[in-house]
Write a structure and sequence with these properties.
Structural class of chain A: mainly alpha
Strand order of the largest sheet of chain A: 1-2
Order of helices and strands of chain A: HHHEEHHHHHHHHHHHHHHHHEEHHHHHHH
Structural class of chain B: mainly alpha
Radius of gyration of chain A: 31 Å
Number of strands of chain B: 2
Largest interface: A-B, 72 and 80 residues
Strand content of chain A: under 5%
Radius of gyration of chain B: 22 Å
Order of helices and strands of chain B: HHHHEEHHHHHHHHHHHHHHHHHH
Shape of chain A: globular
Helix content of chain B: over 70%
Number of domains of chain A: 3
Strand order of the largest sheet of chain B: 1-2
Distance between the termini of chain A: 74 Å
Helix content of chain A: 55-70%
Number of strands of chain A: 4
Number of helices of chain A: 26
Oligomer: heterodimer
Amino acid sequence: MMIPAMTPEGAHPLATTVARLVWLLPLLPLLGFLINGTLAMLGVAKVGPADPSAGHDEHAHAAHTGGHDDHAHHAPTRHKFAGIVSLIGPGVLIAAFGLAVACFLAMRGVEMEHPYIVTLYQWMPVGDLNLAATFQLDQLSMVMVLVVTGVGTLIHVFSVGYMQEDPGYPRYFAYLNLFIFFMLILVLGGNYPLLFVGWEGVGLCSYLLIGFWFSEKANADAGKKAFIVNRIGDFGFLVAMFLMFANLGALDFGNVAAKAAELPMGGVMATTICLFLFLGCAGKSAQIPLYVWLPDAMAGPTPVSALIHAATMVTAGVYLIARSATLFSMAPTAQLVVALVGGLTAFFAATIGLKQWDIKKVLAYSTVSQLGYMFVAVGVGAYVAGIFHLVTHAFFKALLFLGSGSVIYAMHAAYHATHKHDDAQDMRNMGGLRKFMPVTFYLMWIATLAIAGIPFFSGFFSKDEILGSVFARAHGSTLADASLLGVPGGTILMLIYGLGLASALMTAIYMTRMMLYTFHGPNRTGEAERPHLAEAPWIMTGPLVVLGALSLVGGWLNVPALLGAIGPVGVLDHWLEPVVGEAALRTTLGAAPHMTHETELMLVGVAIAIATAGIAFAVWRLKPAALVAKKDAVAPQGIDRILENKYFVDEGYDKGIVQPTLDVSRVVLWKGLDTGIIDGLFVNGSALLARAIGWMGSQLQTGQVGTYAWVLLIGVITLLGAFTFR
Amino acid sequence: MTAFLSSINYSAWIVPVLLLLPAFGAVGLLAHARLSAGDAADKRWREARLLALAFFVAEAILSLGLWWSVDPAVAGWQAAVDLPWIPQWGIRFTVGLDGISMTLVLLTTLLMPLVILGSWTSIRSKVHSYYALLMLLTVGMLGVFVSLDLVLFYVMWEIMLVPMYLIIGVWGGERRLYASLKFFIYTMVGSLLMLVAILYLGSEASRVLGSPTFSYDFILNNVRLDPTTTLWLFGAFALAFAVKVPMFPFHTWLPDAHVEAPTAGSVILAAIMLKMGTFGFIRFALPLFPSAAMNPAVRTFMVTLAVIGIVYGALVALVQPDFKKLVAYSSVSHLGFVMLGIFALTVESMQGALMVTINHGVSTGALFLLIGMIYERRHTRMIADYGGIAKVVPIFATILTIVCLSSIGVPGTNGFIGEFLVLVGSYKTQPLATIIAATSVVFAAAYMLWALQRIIYNPMTKPENEGLKDLNWREIGLMVPLLIAILWLGVYPKPLLDKTEPAARRLVESVQTAAARTPARATNGAR
């Protein structure tokens, strides 16, 4: 069941190449996890005494000596296993990346019509559910594997510097390796349940890494929130799988796609499955209404934010939709929902990004916003555009996060040197960092121009392709013919296009704002701290340089025909065509969306104008020189206050959902129903009743013969009466 | 292995031996108590626990052969023994196994040594009686799983009650008397009606046969009842089992019993005794009364109670200040999955139900063991009394995290496989109930991770926790098999699924075909 009939295993052209070692890809980071995890345990564990109950009180206060502050960068020495961990942690990633590249080269060398499927073992062979653990290597998973292991390697290397003084150093790399393991399961899994294993696995690692410094309640809270909100999405994913199994009779990608293509176009079943799948995506990829966990997730170490909460894990939802392209192409209404939610998320998050002061929060909302773009793309059936933006975003957003990490690292070091406790992530405490950290400064500007969509930087190509795809599908596509809540699809697509343009404008503004406040103008860190501000070591700037180069040239992955003069056209288009081509064509009614040269030129022109205008506007209006440090800042008013507080959505969820759930559970269900009615009234009540009857019975036994005689007499008369009048 | 087992004629004697060995153990312990009366208390205690461990380890090793000797594909009972017991009344000592009961027997025998190790240092008073009662309890539990005579089954069912009543009532916490009495009366009341039903079935069977019998197989294959009677008898059995499971709203004995019981009691209650209820449905209530079980109204009713249990248990668990109580309510939720899987009646959901049965035994058993370990150090079960202890007891924190993740069904652990199979299978026949049940993935994560955070994460605010000692080698050692089971069943559940699949398939098919022939339940070929 797992293997499509037309590709018997072994006959696949990849079976004789290095790609048959695909199982080794996740195994390498798993190995890293096991070794680093063991070292982490060895580093901290002290096995207890044989009799745990003995001598408890004597030792109770022995360790109460204070000095528990071991937040990053405060501990003076490196971990005793730091050497070997630094070797293994990034080492397994480099090996995995090498293998991924080898697989990629092998794949380029063969004619591949069908995905290469490797069956590892029978996983859940139950009834009609003949699930196997299979890996599926095709053009789409290859792109994802390269991004995950490539960007993953860079971030692992960066972490060696960033986390070097952390007492939890081996634990950190253990979690990071485990994350890569699950991420590779996610992108390589050959069926939905196995993808789901990776899906929840990366969520688990995200939980562990957000709460990495778990001794602070805010961090532990953020980790828990991420997990629970993601689980709401996972509920949707699960229901989608139940629907698939019950109605399509399969859960592996090949058969689900084959069966999905037989469903009625735009039917209820395809639409329902897709909407439930999208609920899963909204959780994992932080879309409305489940985006709230991602900004909080910034509580984790910054390289984690770069790897998990920007470049890889949060894009899993985009991957899932691209992977389910056939299903979605059968459900235009669901596609419209996906695109609309994506567009709204892109817009909404961008407005919040305009007013954040924490450098990582700006980037977090920016990530939510950019993920929105990706959903717009896969929503309108422009799967290649979505994956393209996923890849370029992985480059420039990882660069932005790591760059901010290197800024925070410098700020921390400065505050640490002077023993001052202030916010190392608030941009109001930065300013003028350009002259202290020039490498980071230039690289982050590259990433900023890329995300803003300035021509020839990577983001320009991918964002332009998305906006163009939306515009093109507003006429002559299944989407334009469909409707959502009575509104015609064409209108909705134009609305999404408008949202996309507005978001692009805001992206340029908030990114420029971030750069201006961080690197330009006068420095506000403090007189004493200023001399301690310095560029990060090479092990951190090295990966930044690589990402900078990728942010510059990443756009050449998929050059549009319009700009055919600058390089080969549509490389990614051709590469992904076997996986998503058919589904994409279904949405565009069998023909590639056609636009005149003039229209295309106009669209590109508008995009460039908007990006430039955004940057210019920010430079014109924002005055870094007028900014005051965080401690001197005044509370914002009006719309500023609402934006800075993120529209009070978290507060609303708390008051509207979380607290009522807790209250109902406690007061109504537990105290009321459980303890009160069931236990109090029925259980203890019946016990009381039994006792009461027993008491009455015992009262009758008075020992007075006279009473007995009377009772006897009454009884006899009653019986006689009963028989007589029967 | 199979050849070796048949060379020693393993199947012929293993079941009686498994039942007798703990009984001998109980006698042995009482003898030791008498013989060592003059020794120092410390020495007696050490010898008693060693003796108990030796018996349970021997029991576990002996039972291991069942894994190979019981062939799941064979349709009849295996390792069966049939001896006369009370011939005048037609009561026989009939025992036997299929793939389902075999896995439950193994769960019991393999868990018991860990239970003994788990209370290695915490029980120091009246140790001989304590271990003797655990052994008696084991006889009852194994007896329930292997009995194929209805009276024998009932006797074993009630035998379990007394030792557990005493274990809670003597070695329990502050409100142990209330809890033990509640446990006893609750389950007793539930099972009395079952006794009436058993006697009725016996008399019907005797009428058909012409001589007295309580044989499960005979009743299954030959007794035909009218629909109303079937419904009443099903109700009587179902009530006894529903109390034991426990299904909402018969669950309120469980939190009290769990909280007050000593660690061993909680572990056995959760891991094995609750499974008597679900096993009862699988072995008796469904196959004996298929027309009642498949009656749409009955089925909807049971599925509704199961789903209420799933969501309700999770929500109430969310607000528990006592960690043990939280786990108790989480059991109500997990067992709801089992019931949903059983009454959804597809092969996948039934397999899922059996998987959850085993998983809950492993994971919740592990949770209670861990709570016992930390309780032994801090003498409190209140979540609020902890916080930030991952720093001082990292081994404990790591193991607790893994077990909690398994409890909330994170993929890669056993918990996921069970819940997934139940849900994916149940959707086919009970779509709405399944979707409601699936919401518990959110609530489960909420109650477990919130508790986990308040226990091992957050700042350490209580100075009493700073001197906490981490787990010792014994405690680590007894958790390792459970952790292996959690990961093994999560990554490669096939070997276990293969053991139960044929029996689960036969059950589902026989109930479906038998119910299709209503009103009069006809003979069917199953077993």
